[in-house]
Structures are given as structure tokens and as C-alpha cells.
Amino acid sequence: MRTEGEKNVKSTVSRAVVTATVTVALGLTAACGGGGDSDDSGDGKKPSKSATSAQPKEEPKPEPKEKAALSSAELEKAVLASGDLKGYKVEKLSAEDMPELTVPVKPSACQALADMFMFTSDPRAAARVGRSMTGPDELDATVISFALLAHKEGAAKNVMDDLRTATEKCESYEDVGSKFGEVAPLTAPKLGDDAISYKLVGLIDDQKTPMSFTVVRSDSTLVAFYSINLLKPKAFGVPEKVVKAQVTKLEKQ
């Protein structure tokens, strides 16, 4: 018997497919001056005490303070809304589309990818907001889903590392009856403090569904996108202008 979390995952996968059919010391070099050889009867002057005194030691710089996780209210202010990007309509994702709990998958090397499909992660985010977006072209069946995930900065870095490792080691996995494979890295946008893009292909209801993912870390917050286009599978992808608009709005908060 499936758990409630598994039902939510299966429901989310199905909804995604249905919707898609209609997202890099201070070095001080002491100059050693040769003063020439001298004997006791020489007229050379001895270096002054001040000149030979040791340089004072620099105090160690304090470690930069880790950025705290943003609150739900701060995420709500930072997330894109209709009108922020001309021609794009933004709607709120339901709680069912963003389940709180993750569902373990095999092999475990693929877990980070399966989690991000649901905008979840390990460690879990302190707060999340999610949205879906459609573009100005009514004939374009691309559907973009995106979320802001609030973490402590160290945790956010760990999630990015796990995703990057998964794109290198994961080949395929099964998640509540749906199969995913053909995992491959894509060129990531030069945004935020770190970014990763990758693709995977889902076999959902016997239909191949290419999906494009982009995740950007800005300080302690992750900006995660994925897109699906069943009508034009080869045209799938998250437009960089959309990702840039969201990262820019977040960084202005």
C-alpha cells in the first residue's frame, strides 16, 4: 500500500505531464639588501634597532558569518509574480505539488535528482515557495515550474554539491512507478554564487518526457526551475531570461 507521500509524488508527476501538453597572502616580499662585507675598523653604520625589529603579526581575520535561511514571508516577497516579466503568467503551486517528505529511490546516487523534481532536498529547506509559469506564446506548450528554497548557506552548498554529483553518477532510477534516465549535464547560466543545469528523460505513462532543470544558489537560497514540453520535446528548456529575472529579484531583497 502506497504512503501518502508516494501518492503525492505520483499525483505531481501526472499533473506535470497533463499540464505540459496544453523550466571561482597578501604576500609581502622582503627585499634582502646586501650591504657588502665590512670589518671592525670599517666606517659602516650598524642598522638601527627599529630597522631590524620584527614586523608586527597580523591578527587573523574572522571567518565570514554563515548566511541564515530566509523566512517564508521573505521568499514570498522575492518570488516572481505576474507582471514581473512581460507576457508571463505566474500561478502558485499547491501543497500537493510540493510534498514535504521525500520518497527514497534506488539507486541512492539519484536521490538528489528525485528530490529536486519535487522541490525538496536533504537537508530539508527551512521554507519554500513554488510557482508555475506559462509564456506569452499561447501555442507554446512549455510549462515551467520553479521554487525558492531557503537554507542556511552551508546546507545550500551541500545540496548543490549533491546535485552535481548526481548528474555525474546517476544513470536512471524509478520513482513510484515512473522511470527516469538519460541524465546529462547542460550548460549552466552564469548567475548567483553557483549554478547547475541538467536534463533527464522520464518515461511517464509510456511516453518519453524530456525535462530540463536549472538550480542557482544565491547566498543561502536556492532558485530551482524545471520545464516540460510534450508537444515539442526537443524544444524543452528553461529560458535564461526567466532564471535571470528570478535571481535578480531575489538578490534585490
Automatic annotation (TrEMBL):
<feature type="region of interest" description="Disordered">
    <location>
        <begin position="30"/>
        <end position="71"/>
    </location>
</feature>
<feature type="compositionally biased region" description="Basic and acidic residues">
    <location>
        <begin position="56"/>
        <end position="68"/>
    </location>
</feature>
<protein>
    <recommendedName>
        <fullName>Lipoprotein</fullName>
    </recommendedName>
</protein>
